[in-house]
Amino acid sequence: MSQNGVGVDLETSLGYLLKEASSALRAAMEEVLRPLGMSVTHYSCLELLAQRPGLSNSELARGAFVTRQTMNVLLQALERDGYVTRPAEAPVGKVLPTRLTPRGRRSLEKATVAVRSVEVRMLAGMTETEQSDAFRILRSMIHSLRDGNDGA
Amino acid sequence: MSQNGVGVDLETSLGYLLKEASSALRAAMEEVLRPLGMSVTHYSCLELLAQRPGLSNSELARGAFVTRQTMNVLLQALERDGYVTRPAEAPVGKVLPTRLTPRGRRSLEKATVAVRSVEVRMLAGMTETEQSDAFRILRSMIHSLRDGNDGA
DNA sequence: TGACTCATGTCAGTATTCTGACATAGATTC
DNA sequence: GAATCTATGTCAGAATACTGACATGAGTCA
To answer: Which of B23, B52, B119 minimises the CB distance to A6?
Structure first.
């Protein structure tokens, strides 16, 4: 079907491989979250709030790797459906601290179990050493990409 | 601003780190492709065609990690603007082999240089060993995620 | 040959995310 | 204190990608 012998260096590109891995992860997460009626961004938002209660819209956006406008529309839907609460007025500045409701916490529980199974599956074929290597290498890539190439 | 001391295990999740790395890579690529008026999917399509001339719509979609419907609208735009050509009738079956035009090839050249700089930047802080480790580990993750957990 | 399955190309509508823009609150600088 | 800068929340429109659906061509099997 493909692999027709041409020296395809997409197969030797770390960027392409990273995109492939990310795509596979996203697909696997969507697959297990779909039965729960939850998208990946939806889940990310709830998980962030469970681990750091009181995060603002902008902080949630950065944590979920979307724009604050995108997170805003998601939060409005989550608030309307009773998964999170935000004060009507900001305690300080314009920042509205968001918190999970009991309903949000319950909804998250099932999702966490589902997502953890994906994480476990992803780590399945890796040794302890490979896992810590993976962390170190991914962090190195992130750092290099963020701070431009004038770091040295 | 954050990091308020709560034991945040998102920081210990390989899935989260993978998403973070992928997001950083995408942002870096968009940054260098924007001046050329080219999106990441747009570039991926042209690069795939340069390395494997004659790929079909569906094959390009799989290679760029989008649906074949999404790739179809992109190909129609690229064809309209003279970057690629497809025969009016399928030589065999329904498959329409796509090829770059000279204009498409020219457009790709600049983009390739730009994207290569991102790839180089990403590999900057890594040793040879770490690079080959990165390949092996990412492939392992992809394999585990794809084939379900009943591989063993 | 005929029924069935599968992959493909494509149209349409929907969903999700982004960019642009604005007003406002806190921090910084003079 | 006033000006400036930065960050935030939010609205609106545009871009992008997806799901659903359909017809068609090729391979498989009886």
So the answer is: B52
| Encoded tokens for A135 | 């962390």
Chain B window 54-73, residues with Cβ within 7 A of nucleic strand D: 65-67, 69-70, 73
Give the tens place of pLDDT for each residue, A71-101: 999 999 999 999 999 998 878 889 999 999 9
Strand C contact at CB of residue A120, distance < 7 A: no
Torsion B14-A144-B123-B104 (CA) sign: positive
| Interface contact A122-B137, CB threshold 8 A | no
Q: Which residues of A touch B126 (CB under 8 A)?
A: 137, 140-141
DSSP line for A44-65 = HHHHHHHHSTT--HHHHHHHHT
Residues in chain A with CB shorter than 8 Å from the CB of B92 are none
Distance A95 CA to C28 C1' (A): 20
Q: How far apart are CA A43 and CA B103, in angstroms?
A: 43
Pick from A115, A144, A114: nearest CA to A18 = A144
pLDDT on residue B5: 36
ipTM of the prediction greater than 0.85, yes or no: yes
What chain A holds in terms of domains, given with CATH numbers, is 12-115 (1.10.10.10)
CA distance A108 to A119: 16
pLDDT tens column, A122-145: 998 899 999 999 999 999 999 999
Crossing angle for the helix pair B57-64 and B40-51, to the nearest 10 degrees = 120
C-alpha distances (whole Å) from A9 to each of A12, A99, B50, B57, B68 are 5, 47, 11, 20, 23
